[in-house]
Amino acid sequence: MKLSRGLSTAFAVVQLLDRALAAATSGTFSILSMNVAGLPAILNSNDVPGDKTTNAATIGSQFAEYNYDVIHVQEDFNYHAHIYRTDTHPHRTPTSGGVPFGSGLNTLSTLPFLDFRRTKWARCSDASEFDCLTPKGFTFMRVALSLPPNVSVSISDNTTAVYADFYNLHTDAGTEAGDLTARNDNVNQVAAHIAQWSRGNAVVVYGDVNSRYTRAGDTAIRGLLAGEDDAAGPGLKDVWVELARGGVLPTAEDACGNPARDSQCETVDKVFYRSSPLVRLQAEQFRYDTARFLQADGNVLSDHNPVFVQFAWEAGPGLRQSGFFGGVAGTWFSDVPVLAGLSKPKAGVLTFRGGSRLDSVAVTLTEGTRLRHGGTGGTEVSLSLGADEYWTEAQLCRGEKNGKPRNFYIRAATSSGRTLAAGTATADCATFTAPDGWQIVGFVGQDGDEMDQLAFVYAPR
């Protein structure tokens, strides 16, 4: 059948609109790590010519011009306002203050993020630097690579979302014995946080690590790597090792100058990452971007080479997730590692507990695995699904308890039109629909005695 020109044009517009409204399942994003040399000039000139206020404003304008997707900065202390004044990224972390109050860690992003938090190092050393002068540490945020669109129309995959956990860090500096001990402890502290709070998730870690692979005392960074010294570690890849060195760790020191002569030399500013069953990450480009960050006279703006990486991402072929709903209190949980080890998981029994609020959620899969989260309060309700019946839709409603948001209500709907509900509905609700050909099989989120935050895990039928 041949459509008329007008009808054909209208049909094409509808197709384009549908694609525009659908949450993306693949794409690219760029990152930059830059120590911006923001210590007060009276404390540290950083051996950088020029006025630090002017340099900070220039750095911010370059951030805006090149529009990297997620920029992590370190030593963003007393000149922070001048960077933000000239930058235009829509999502930015609030400063924690100048010296001696702030950590110097901030993020500027084109992508939205949630659950931002700052963590101070448990150990520091003043053996050769003044690392205990400020509350140095790391930051955490869950960055949305793709989100469901905020629209009123219904399309097949309007509630899929893709996230990766981003960490920004600035470890203890120096090479004295105390510095090395503190720095290794810093890196191990990040690894422990990844194990607890990024279970089941893709991870991108970058910043001023103050470490070199050729320095005998810098042992902890090898424990971050997949297949290296720590088999129980987070299993990350170092982008510089992967792309610039063909996967081979250096054995002879080749420290970069400033600007770096090429991508083969090593800096203490590093980028690590890993994929998850929910999203595949692949580093595609790596370079030191100092040439983009120069003063008008050609001098550098910082004593560190900015590190650029371009990533490609693709939503998982076997597991995907919805957007999050609720609050950000509670303890992180993820059913993804368990589900990733199963062949064709399917919900067999849904079990919820609720009263004034939503206390717990559970799903028993047809092969017997039971996935449960939350507390033991409220009244229990249950629904057994038929052999050809799938959990396809969920509604969540949230409210506040003690001034903090959490989930108050859940309503599940199956492919057969049956429903199960628990808790107390509110006026603030969202509906999550599995993509065509997919089903809800598990959960990710944060819980305690009740369900603070919740998202749903999808698998193909």
Textual characterization of the structure:
The chain is an alpha+beta fold. The chain folds into 2 domains: 17-315, Endonuclease/exonuclease/phosphatase (Deoxyribonuclease I, Chain A, 4-Layer Sandwich); 320-460, Aligned Prism (Vitelline Membrane Outer Layer Protein I, subunit A). Helices cover 16% and strands 37% of the residues. The protein is built from 7 helices and 25 strands. The strands form 5 sheets. It has a 6-stranded mixed beta sheet. Helix 2 runs parallel beside helix 3. It is elongated. The relative contact order is 0.12. Residues 1-22 form the signal peptide.
Describe the structure concisely.
This protein has helices at residues 5-21, 52-66, 80-86, 177-197, 220-223, 239-244, 336-340, and strands at 26-35, 70-74, 91-92, 106-109, 113-120, 137-146, 162-170, 203-208, 237-238, 269-274, 279-288, 307-315, 320-321, 325-326, 331-334, 347-354, 358-365, 370-374, 379-384, 391-401, 404-414, 419-423, 428-433, 438-447, 451-460. The protein has 461 residues and is α+β, with helices and mostly antiparallel strands.
